[in-house]
Design brief:
By secondary structure, this protein is of the alpha+beta class. It has a 5-stranded mixed β-sheet with strand order 3-2-1-5-8. Strands 4-10-9-6-7 form a 5-stranded mixed β-sheet. It has a two-stranded antiparallel ribbon with strand order 11-12.
């Protein structure tokens, strides 16, 4: 029984490692810890390989001793049926199976602690991008204080390189309950706790879309509180910043929809810069249609899904805190047409 716990852990680790080299380089379609593309993720991946090697060593040692004992001491037809000689304790063996596991635990503890402190205490360079991440039930708010940008659910950051390091430092806050920011290809999990600011950082070295999600149960729609991080090359990121800094598009053809938005409860929860809508409870909609998804990654962001979301949010995300607005079909069409211009 003493060897059962490390053996079981080693077996699980070995089975998991079978897929270790399967993912290709670059962004993965699903959250993956097996294809790191950011400095903290590389460090975590290296630690996981170190732990795996120790677990594999334990497995091979225990399995080897077990195989040796089964073969050497198996029952034979020539054996006497009398009770074999009894051995009552062995100081050397008991010391070995006590000291060796303690030494293994100490090594794993020190290695893990060193990595945790190395990541947490990494100095922030002047070139770093600062982003404040606020977790809500059940969506993400992203604020770029130095750039004057507020957006939701889709985080855009610049591509970093060894020649021009551009890490992104994230201040993590929670607006209601505990959440957890986790994009496994970029960094480890970090919790967002009410009234307790946390921080993490990423240093992505390959462009593309990286996916993750809230990793802390936060309510009915925890599983659909998804994350999308776009790592843009410098020109793409500059263009995105320039667009996000602009006020909302004013299109006279959808003036009726804008008037409806500003006279309904919508403006109490949402902000659209350049209009009377200054709500803070829901996502900023100034550039709503520049995002690829709705409802924190639940569905594609297009006019059809947007209309359904306004009409009955619960049909797409049961348990979300946005109420159905009780609009007529004509009003739904007008509001949808207006919001569809916000790019």
């Amino acid at each position: 029984m003493i060897g059962s716990i490390p053996v079981r852990s080693a077996v699980i680790s070995l089975l998991s490692s079978a897929a270790l080299w399967m993912p290709g380089k670059g962004p993965q379609a699903t959250p993956s810890t097996l294809a790191p593309t950011s400095t903290p993720a590389y460090e975590i991946h290296a630690l996981s390989l170190f732990v795996l090697s120790i677990a594999a060593g334990i497995f091979l040692s225990v399995a080897g001793l077990l195989t040796y004992a089964i073969i050497k001491y198996r029952a034979r037809r020539t054996d006497h049926l009398s009770e074999p000689a009894q051995i009552y304790g062995s100081t050397q063996i008991e010391l070995a199976w006590t000291v060796i596991p303690v030494l293994i635990v100490i090594v794993l503890f020190l290695t893990t602690a060193r990595l945790i402190f190395a990541i947490q205490d990494a100095p922030e360079p002047e070139s770093a991008l600062d982003v404040t991440v606020i977790g809500h039930q059940f969506w993400w708010e992203f604020r770029y204080p130095k750039l004057g940008i507020v957006t939701a659910n889709e985080l855009h950051v610049p591509l970093s390189s060894e020649q021009e390091p551009l890490p992104t430092y994230l201040t993590l806050l929670a607006a209601d309950v505990d959440h957890s920011f986790w994009v496994p290809q970029l960094a480890g999990k970090t919790d967002l706790i009410p009234n307790h600011p946390n921080a993490t950082w990423i240093n992505p070295l390959q462009p593309g879309l990286y996916v993750g999600q809230c990793a802390q149960f936060c309510g009915a729609q925890h599983a659909l509180m998804l994350l999308r991080v776009y790592v843009d090359n410098p020109d793409e990121f500059s263009a995105w910043v320039k667009n996000q800094q602009q006020p909302a598009v004013e299109d006279p053809r959808v003036a009726g929809g804008r008037h409806l938005f500003e006279t309904q409860a919508c403006m109490s929860c949402h902000t659209i810069r350049g209009t009377a809508a200054t709500g803070r409870f829901g996502p900023d909609l100034t550039h709503l249609m520049s995002r690829q998804t709705l409802a924190s990654g639940v569905t594609n962001n297009n006019a059809e899904n947007l209309r359904q979301w306004i009409e009955d949010p619960g049909s797409l995300k049961s348990g979300c805190l946005m109420p159905a607005m009780q609009l007529s079909d004509q009003q739904l069409d007008q509001v949808t047409e207006y919001l569809s211009t916000l790019r």
